[in-house]
Design a protein that fits this description.
This protein has about 475 residues and is an alpha+beta fold. Helices cover about 45% and strands about 15% of the residues.
């Protein structure tokens, strides 16, 4: 996110490649295989990961030796990534990078299948965590530990909180890049003012506001529920606020019966209480996050609130007319739950995005990729681009740039939330193994559709603990 790409949260590549490729191909509808940009068709994109391997594409030098880079569409993030590639290619005409752009869910389906077949791009963009771990276990990505030691200045300029998700068994397999993206509770100030109410300070306030807004014909919360990972954000915060980070840590560590913890059952129950109280927009399970329809519901006043990633601020600023410019968008960290053990300063989401280098790439491609990591990222132009887009780069010392931004209030909130959180939980479908993440997303969808009980959810998830 929520993302990133949207740079929002994703299930990882499976350890057993053949099984997981089958799963992914059967789930193309999972986050809507929409369109590719720049006139590239979906069929052409799939053909691009055929037998020619990671060097496919044109660019500087020979086609065989051109490094490749796939990344997500959607402005303004797409433009910043594309500009970084263009600037690098301009400075390195003999070592160009060939890029392809994909919609969020199409990317997540294709990248896993391509890497599993040993035909992924040279530069592998992702969210770290469980997905990266599975790449490492399958021998698909380069160990960057020595490279980072030789480029200590790069490491020193980045947020320390961004590195755990790039590390597997004490070794670094990805470079943290781009932005920090906590999940944020947004609200429409104009809608709140017209209803004569204040933003929630507790879970009890949230439930009370549900009744207020429903009585006025306004959906309490917007939600792109068809995307499934958007639903997950609610559970991530409720688990933390009720039981603290140790509840999910036990799940992450594969402790027996961890999903059946009392705090887990309470969080699952509270989510269903919210659904039953009509807390979400009618038809939420058919709304996709890729379409940004959930954002539109908020800035058009059809919904009062939305729990979503920090990346959506830029989208609402771009597409919402004067909504952001006029100061009609409010934001806050998720409120505490009564009698909960979690620290209200905790947050969840994306501590960064990550670039790895394919172990299947040629020596020339790897050299180009490493040169891009060393000189093509964290340039002044890229850092300014992220800030101008309404995002906080993971680079230290950007306070002066943030304070000069017209979005300084929001950016300062994100910076403070991320840097002061006692715990920054990585999105679950990134942190868990691929098999567990897919089962998680399926069961979260069922939970929100009220087709499984909290206990059934816990039982289903316990069955894949540690897998």
């Amino acid at each position: 996110m929520n993302d990133l790409l949207d740079d929002r949260p994703v299930a990882s590549l499976a350890r057993q490649w053949s099984t997981e490729i089958t799963v992914e191909l059967s789930n193309l509808s999972r986050r809507s295989f929409l369109s590719l940009t720049a006139g590239t068709s979906a069929a052409a994109a799939l053909a691009a990961c055929g037998s020619s391997g990671p060097g496919t594409g044109g660019g500087g030098g020979t086609s065989k030796d051109a490094a490749t880079f796939w990344f997500l569409t959607g402005q303004p993030q797409e433009g910043i990534r594309a500009n970084a590639v263009a600037e690098f290619n301009k400075a390195n005409p003999d070592n160009k990078i060939v890029e392809q752009r994909f919609q969020n869910d199409a990317f997540k389906t294709k990248i896993k299948a391509a890497i599993g077949a040993g035909q992924g791009p040279t530069l592998i963009w992702g969210w770290g965590g469980g997905g990266l771990k599975s790449y490492v276990e399958a021998g698909q990505v380069e160990d960057l530990t020595d490279w980072m030691s030789q480029n200590q200045a790069i490491k020193d300029k980045l947020f320390p909180s961004s590195f755990p998700a790039a590390t597997v068994n004490g070794k670094l397999y990805a470079l943290p890049i781009e932005t920090v993206q906590p999940i944020i509770l947004y609200w429409n100030k104009k809608v709140f003012d017209s209803a004569g109410v204040q933003p929630p300070k507790s879970w009890g306030d949230i439930m009370n506001l549900v009744g207020v807004f429903n009585s006025k014909g306004i959906a309490p919360f917007s939600l792109g529920g068809q995307s499934r990972w958007t639903n997950m954000m609610w559970l991530e915060f409720l688990y933390d606020r009720i039981g603290g980070p140790e509840v999910f840590e036990a799940i992450y560590n594969g402790e027996k019966d961890a999903w059946n913890h009392p705090a887990s059952i309470e969080a699952l129950t509270k989510v269903q209480d919210l659904v039953k109280a009509k807390g979400f927009i009618k038809g939420f399970s058919s709304i996709t996050a890729d379409s940004n329809a959930d954002q539109a519901l908020l800035y058009k006043g059809r919904a009062a609130m939305m729990l979503h990633g920090g990346w959506t601020y830029g989208g609402m600023k771009k597409d919402g007319g004067d909504f952001v410019k006029k100061g009609e968008l409010g934001w806050m960290n998720f409120p505490p739950v009564e009698n909960g053990k979690g620290d209200p300063s905790d947050t969840v989401g994306n501590p960064g995005q990550y670039l790895s280098i394919s172990s299947k790439a040629s020596a020339a491609q790897k050299e180009t990729a490493k040169k891009f990591l060393a000189s093509g990222k964290f340039t002044d132009g890229e850092i300014k681009g992220w800030i101008d887009s309404g995002a906080v780069p993971i680079v230290k010392g950007t306070e002066s740039l943030i304070s000069a931004s017209p979005d300084k209030e929001f950016l300062s909130f994100v910076y403070d939330t991320s840097s002061k959180a006692k715990f920054f939980g990585q999105s679950w479908d990134q942190a868990l193994s691929p098999q567990a993440a897919e089962v998680l997303l399926t069961n979260i969808s069922k939970l929100f559709q009220l087709s499984v009980t909290p206990q059934q959810f816990a039982t289903n998830m316990n069955a894949v603990l540690g897998k």
